[in-house]
Amino acid sequence: MAKQDNKIAIAKALSDGKFHSGEQLGKELGISRAAIAKHVKSLTLLGIDIFSVTGKGYRLAEPFNLIDQQRLMELCGNNLNIEVHGIIDSTNQRLMDLIRSKQDIDDGLTVISECQTEGRGRRGRSWISPFGSHIYLSRYFKSHEGLSEVAALSLVIGLAISNAIERYTGVVAELKWPNDVMVNNKKLAGVLVEAEGQSDGFCHLVIGIGINVNMPEESAELITQPWTDLQMVSKKTIDRNEFIAVLLAELDKVIDAFRVDKLTKLYKLWNNRNAFEGDVVNITTGDRVKSGRCIGIDETGALLIEEDNVISRIFGGEVSLRRA
């Protein structure tokens, strides 16, 4: 069994929240207690809080439910093309590698992982990706409209995430242009859409989604902006398999609508969840800062800002949006 497989097997054994001795784990995996101790240490480096008690063994600080591919398929009516990984560099990178290897990829192929070692967010930032705690998901999307669809698609994916959160937890999540999902002015989820192809023709799009579900304390210390997670805002235990099934259904809905009408109808739904509606905001692009009242988005996905009775349209890219 590969080292990574041993790590996953130990994580699965510990996921029930009970104590497991290093000796027993070693017997089950056919490796030494010393090897078990090394794997446990490496799992803590992946963001899992594990207690070690002499005479009892190892136990998770809090039990978690692992993503089960078979159960997920059943929840989705077996109508799903999906890969589930234990540890991966990045779910987006997995799809980009498939694209660049010239493989024939089915539209809608979805890659999910328990952990990302090189998770990334917008503008080159890293995305904190502790094992078994959150949702790291990427979906492949075939476009015949070129790179122009990237910004608009990011907006509708945010809408799908907020719809899934409300459907599963009852909590209303708001949207921050261009790609953040917020609850109580704290970031709960983010979207990163990456592209490969022609600017005005066929294009491969990779939709990356990161959703905070149950943030471990040690991982929380690494985050430099206000954050929240699903369990905190809903005050309920989240079954990630069930939530992912709801999320994929909501993604299908908005993507189908987007293919037909682009943002013609969806932009109004996005504006209904605009986190900064009516607020004075600062738009930072490089060294330039523009201020104005946030109105919402238009049918193209541009952000509308009003200053001195003049409305400006702001497009995506290396742009930062903050309340003034």
Automatic annotation (TrEMBL):
One MF term in the entry's GO annotations: biotin--[biotin carboxyl-carrier protein] ligase activity
InterPro entries attached to this UniProt entry: aa-tRNA-synth_II/BPL/LPL, Bifunct_BirA, Biotin_CoA_COase_ligase, BPL_C, BPL_LPL_catalytic, HTH_11, Transcriptional_repressor_C, WH-like_DNA-bd_sf
Reactions performed catalytically: biotin + L-lysyl-[protein] + ATP = N(6)-biotinyl-L-lysyl-[protein] + AMP + diphosphate + H(+)
Keywords associated with the record: ATP-binding, Biotin, DNA-binding, Ligase, Nucleotide-binding, Repressor, Transcription, Transcription regulation
Family as reported in the entry's similarity comment: Belongs to the biotin--protein ligase family.
Gene name for this UniProt entry: birA
Domain BPL/LPL catalytic: residue ranges: 67-259
EC number, UniProt record: 6.3.4.15
Binding positions for biotin per the UniProt entry: S90, T91, N92, Q116, R120, G121, R122, K187
GO biological process: regulation of DNA-templated transcription
PROSITE patterns, per the entry: BPL_LPL_CATALYTIC (PS51733)
DNA-binding residues (ranges): 22-41
Species for this entry: Psychrosphaera ytuae
First-level EC class: ligase
GO cellular component: cytoplasm
PANTHER family: BIOTIN PROTEIN LIGASE, BIOTIN--PROTEIN LIGASE
Function: Acts both as a biotin--[acetyl-CoA-carboxylase] ligase and a biotin-operon repressor. In the presence of ATP, BirA activates biotin to form the BirA-biotinyl-5'-adenylate (BirA-bio-5'-AMP or holoBirA) complex. HoloBirA can either transfer the biotinyl moiety to the biotin carboxyl carrier protein (BCCP) subunit of acetyl-CoA carboxylase, or bind to the biotin operator site and inhibit transcription of the operon.
Protein name in the entry: Bifunctional ligase/repressor BirA
Transmembrane residue ranges: none
